[in-house]
């Protein structure tokens, strides 16, 4: 089975540079875990005796819980470090934290941080395998992998698919990871949103840029909506939430412009009535809840692969 790319093959820090031959086996393993999860026959000895630390410098109940569940289903000892109550908030540097974690002799470290590159820095300083659970506006690799698995389960593959990623692309690490993965797998990717949130520079990533939903959604096979990340925005980047929905919200009328039975996706958490209408979010075309389910399976696959890589090195 192919290893992750780059010098640090025992870490998953991003998807940029990965090849289809590296991505497909990981999705296959995740698919097997999805089936095992549904049958409740998960092999709990895969990570028995291993320690997984969730180190989240940013809040994310969904992602942290998903990694916690993935680790426990594989038999790992899981520790959630509350950064708000830790020495980090008392002035400890990231490198001091790395030294502390090394002393704990953890096997797996899942890191979410507001600064791009923080997980990569930790990966250089710790013995544990590091998984990037989202860093700044850089990448969120496991989210893109679960998105890809969900798409593959419904569409059978990726070749020839048109995927429209809509909304706050500028501040979205999910969008960047999805773009790297989906273009690599042969999808035609569009990014759609106002010029303040979808700069033309995204064309350099091999995607088409649209500034109206009507143009961007026409003929799409997958419509992926993104949350407005107000915490990362400067003032004036969007009008009111009501005006934003009027021009860029996904409702049934706009969804009808996409191909029949187009998948509706969202990485969560959703702002209903801001980027997506409840009738669409809860429709038969929505696979948003399945994305959550696939998230556990993908993270189980990643933890499995990294642990095997580390102990076979």
Number of domains: 2
Q: What's the β-strand tally?
A: 9
Classification by helices and strands: alpha/beta
Please state the overall shape, judged from the principal axes of the Cα atoms: globular
EC number: 2.1.3.2
Function: Catalyzes the condensation of carbamoyl phosphate and aspartate to form carbamoyl aspartate and inorganic phosphate, the committed step in the de novo pyrimidine nucleotide biosynthesis pathway.
GO cellular component, one term: cytosol
Binding site for carbamoyl phosphate: 62-63, 112, 140, 143, 268-269
Summarize the SSE layout with pairings.
Elements: H1 20-39, E1 51-56, H2 61-73, E2 77-82, H3 94-104, E3 108-113, H4 118-125, E4 129-135, H5 141-155, E5 162-166, H6 173-184, E6 188-192, E7 208-210, H7 213-217, E8 222-225, H8 241-248, H9 252-255, E9 263-265, H10 278-281, H11 288-312
Parallel strand pairs: 1-2, 1-3, 3-4, 5-6, 5-8, 6-7, 8-9
Family: Belongs to the aspartate/ornithine carbamoyltransferase superfamily. ATCase family.
Binding site for L-aspartate: 90, 173, 227
Organism: Acetobacter cerevisiae
Task: List descriptors.
313 residues, 40% helix, Rossmann fold, 4-stranded parallel β-sheet, 11 helices, 2 domains, 5-stranded parallel β-sheet, 14% strand, alpha/beta, globular
Question: Would you kindly provide a written description of the structure presented here, covering whatever features stand out?
Answer:
The chain has 313 residues and is an alpha/beta fold. The protein folds into two domains: 11-139 and 293-309, Aspartate/ornithine carbamoyltransferase (Rossmann fold, 3-Layer(aba) Sandwich); 141-286, 3-Layer(aba) Sandwich (Rossmann fold), CATH 3.40.50.1370. Helices cover 40% and strands 14% of the residues. The chain is built from eleven helices and nine strands. It has helices spanning 20-39, 61-73, 94-104, 118-125, 141-155, 173-184, 213-217, 241-248, 252-255, 278-281, 288-312; strands spanning 51-56, 77-82, 108-113, 129-135, 162-166, 188-192, 208-210, 222-225, 263-265. The strands form two sheets. Strands 7-6-5-8-9 form a five-stranded parallel sheet. The protein has a four-stranded parallel sheet with strand order 2-1-3-4, with helices on both faces. Helix 2 (61-73) links the parallel strand 1 and strand 2. Helix 2 crosses helix 11 (288-312) and helix 5 (141-155) packs across helix 6. The chain is globular. The mean pLDDT is 90. Belongs to the aspartate/ornithine carbamoyltransferase superfamily. ATCase family. Carbamoyl phosphate binds at residues 62-63, 112, 140, 143, 268-269. Heterododecamer (2C3:3R2) of six catalytic PyrB chains organized as two trimers (C3), and six regulatory PyrI chains organized as three dimers (R2). One of its GO terms (biological process) is amino acid metabolic process. One of its GO terms (molecular function) is amino acid binding.
